[in-house]
Every structure is written in C-alpha cells, then in structure tokens.
TrEMBL record:
Biased composition regions of type Basic residues, renumbered to the chain: 159-169
Start-end of Acidic residues biased regions: 175-185
Region of interest (Disordered), ranges: 63-82, 142-190
InterPro entries with a match to the protein in the record: XPA_sf
Bias (Low complexity) ranges: 142-158
Entries under Gene3D superfamilies matching the protein: XPA C-terminal domain
Protein's name in the database: Uncharacterized protein
C-alpha cells in the first residue's frame, strides 16, 4: 500500500465508502496514496483507510473514461464470441474488476444459474474483451498513482486548525467492513448451500445478524 500522507486536507472518505459510492475495486484504490491508515478501533482485521475524496473522484472519472474508450464489441445486446470465454465472477477476481466496470463490455451469453432461479444469472465474456478492459483501466490507475504521489510529495504540513473547525468527512456506519459485495454475479456457479453460507457471512460482516 502506498505511504500515507502526514496531513489530511479537504474532504476525505473511508475506503469502504469510496468503493461503494464510486464503484471502485481494491486494485483501483491501491493506485492512490491514502491520507491515513490506522488500526481498526473495533478490532477488525482490516485497517481504517482514508482517502482524499477529490483524488477518489478523479480516479473514478479516469477509470470511467478508460472503460468506455473502446466502443461496444457488437451492436446487439450480446458480444460476438471471439476465442476463449471467462465467467463474470472469475473476470472480477482475476483482473481486479468491478461489476460496474464490466458493464462497459457486453457478455457473449447469459445463462440461468444452475443452482436456482433466486441466484443471479451467469454471464460469460470474451476473455480478450476482459483483458483489453483491464489493460485500459491499469493505464488509468498508473496515471492516477502518478498524480496522487505528486500531490502527496508537494503537500505541506497544515497549520493547527482553529477551534471548532475540523476536516470534512463522509461518515460511514460500516467503516470497519472491507469485504467485496456488489450483488451482480456474486453467487455465480455456487451451490445453494455455499451461496447461503456466503450470504450469511456478508450479513455477519455488516452486523446484520
């Protein structure tokens, strides 16, 4: 993880909020220099990470532009098959993509989930489309990392704030949660028992038990 800045300035946002609000992955946010990385006050396994919200917004904008840089792979609802395919969940896990980012490309086919109608359908993509998308996003992350590092090195220690003034924040009721849950494709290829166990784990992480 990049080194943290010594003095947060301006509006800041928790890592978990940044992921959910701006549809970013851990790989995306790893390109930014955090404002601070602190031990979890609730004893959770993940540290509390804060970023400049301006940096997060700029990153999200660059990634969106990169994701849509290459036009759709076909004019219809589905892409024309082109070589090897990859499942939605595997594309996310292996290439650090989010569901929102994968919407920039079209699946080659969408099938009912074999483990039940209550689970999301299974989407297959051209592997070459996923790789091309991941490469465009990686280039955008590199640009973001350079900008974030430059901002961190040029920042000066802030003066002691006046009494009653604090840095603005984006409050989070789940600041100690750092799981990966965005719904679409989360249960691809899982048995009903495994899907139920994963769902219960998510509820537990959110304190919904």
């Amino acid at each position: 993880m990049p080194p943290s800045r010594t003095q947060p300035t301006g509006s800041w946002i928790f890592k978990t909020d940044a992921r959910k609000r701006y549809k970013l992955s851990d790989a995306d946010l790893a390109s930014l220099t955090p404002l601070s990385v602190l031990p979890n006050p609730r004893g959770g396994p993940h540290p509390v990470v804060k970023y400049s919200e301006r940096d997060v917004q700029a990153l999200a904008r660059r990634l969106k532009e990169a994701a849509t840089a290459a036009g759709p792979s076909s004019d219809g609802d589905l892409a024309k098959p082109n070589g090897k395919e990859i499942l939605h969940t595997k594309a996310k896990n292996e290439y650090g993509l989010t569901t929102e980012q994968l919407r920039a490309i079209k699946p080659t086919r969408i099938e009912p989930n074999p483990y039940g109608d209550r689970l999301p359908p299974m989407k297959h993509y051209n592997l070459c489309d996923v790789v091309a998308l991941a490469e465009r996003l990686a280039a955008a992350r590199t640009q973001s990392a350079s900008s974030s590092s430059a901002a961190a090195s040029s920042s000066r220690p802030a003066r002691s704030p006046k009494k009653g003034r604090r840095a603005k924040r984006s409050p989070s009721p789940y600041e100690d949660y750092d799981g990966d849950w965005d719904g679409d494709g989360a249960f691809d290829g899982m048995s009903p028992d495994d899907a139920h166990a994963k769902l219960m784990g998510i509820f537990h992480d959110y304190g919904m038990h």
